Amino acid sequence: MVDFLREAAQVVPSKRQLMWYDTAFYAFIHFGMNTFTDREWGDGTEPESLFDPAQLDCSQWASVLCDAGIRGMILTAKHHDGFCLWPSRYTEHSVKNAACKRDVVGEAASACRAAGLRFGVYLSPWDRNCACYGTPEYNDFYCAQLEELLTGYGELFCVWFDGACGEGPDGRRQEYDFPRYIELIRKYQPNAVIFYDKGPDVRWCGNEAGNCRVSEWAVVPSELCTLAPVQTGPGPLAGEGDLTSLYNTDRFVGGMSGILYSKGLSFVPSEVDTSIRPGWFWHSQEEPRPLRTLFEIYLGTVGGNACLNLNIPPDRDGLLDARDVARLMELRRLIDQEFANPLAVTVEQQKDGYPTQPVYQITLAQPVSKVKYVELQEEIEKGQRIETFRIEAVFHEGKNFPLYQGTTVGNRKICVITDPFAEQNRLLDGSGDKTDKLLVKVTAARGEVSLKQIKVYGK
After folding, report:
1. Are residues 201 and 173 in the same domain?
2. Residues in CB range of 431: below 8 A, 6 or more apart
């Protein structure tokens, strides 16, 4: 077990994953044929003339996202119906034959660049319009469209996949050649993270409700992320080349350019994708989710060692719905209110602790009777190591009052000490006493702990 922990402590993110962590909060834009048919999944038979957003304005999308504090946009360049939001050379089912003959991908990419947002694309592997779906030729078709997106629209920060897969003509089932797709992305967009259920860079949290795990590890067994590269650290097992004694996971990842992966651990953090509305595409009768729900999702994702990909669907005019915009502005104001002004603190690490169980003393410039949040960040560049920790308030009479018991930290952990929506927030110790000292005690870790930052937020 000691060898395993030593190895696990050495598994680190790539540069592209660090850039993705820095993005933190970005937007999904589900827009396409379903917007005009009032459906979630089209069948690929919709006439192209239906696509007609009369007031299409991608700059409005980008402006709203910037105002909301969102840092990136992922556009559904093609959903399962196969309709392309760019004039693809490889299909007639695209904007080139629509009532609106505009390159939406190009306009969205330009709007993001002008606004300082990062831009990414989602290209559905499932295409219900393509006649060769379910045959080996489909992977050629898909790669041709993917190459158009990778080479025609500037720098991408993310290429987003899902595993959607249906039957093609005559009941044929498509075998997606993900290793080939990955190779193409690495060739043309080496700085882009690839999102998919099984990696290689970012994985799915497992639901679309907006929740990630209470203990969200970015270091995971390689058999859970079969498309991710395997890492081994400099510990005793490194000479064996893998973690053979722990994971017997030799496997051949197929497709037509099959790649052999070994055993071990991979660094594959989690993205939480959810929608501001019940559906992914715009429907006139739907309303945005409550502010409290969205804020709690933000705390649990951006503040839970994950990133948040919040879907905001444009309407049939090609604009973000005013109801959604208002809710986003409410969310931005609440986030700013809660996190714009951390308390002035001094942080000292006590010298008598173990490297894997350090104690950090936080001295506040002014005593407080209420602590709302404590934010922790590991030096994730060195790996994710903290397994459990607790936060205590220190009082002059020598009594410590427990404030929070936690597990993982990772890139960013927001510890909620008081409920911001409660009518009366709980006082620090229940009696109104004030304190100017807090302790963060790491109680278990996989290796030597290195905290990058500690922030405290109070009244």
Report:
1. yes
2. none
pLDDT in tens, 374-412: 999 999 999 999 999 999 999 866 688 899 999 999 999
**Of 194, 203, 185, residue with least CA distance to 149:** 185
| Cα–Cα nearest to 30, from 310, 284, 330, 329 | 310
Same domain, 134 and 269: yes
Residue 420: the pLDDT is: 75
Domain containing residue 371: 345-458
- Residue 252 burial by Cβ neighbours in a 10 Å radius (0-12, 13-18, 19+): exposed
Q: What is the pLDDT of residues 175-187, one digit of tens each?
A: 999 999 999 999 9
The last residue of one of the domains, among 338, 367, 396, is 338
Within this chain, do residues 419 and 380 fall inside the same structural domain, yes or no? yes
pLDDT of residue 351: 80
Two tokens at 438? 């807090």
Give the side-chain half-sphere CA count within 13 A for 433.
15
* pTM summary value: 0.91
First to last CA, the chain: 44
Task: Specify whether 37 is located in the same domain as 164.
Answer: yes
3-state DSSP helix/strand/coil % of the chain, to nearest 5:
25, 25, 45
405 and 327 within one domain: no
- pLDDT at position 362 over 80: yes
Closest CA to 95 of 154, 158, 37, 53: 53
Domains held by the chain: number:
2
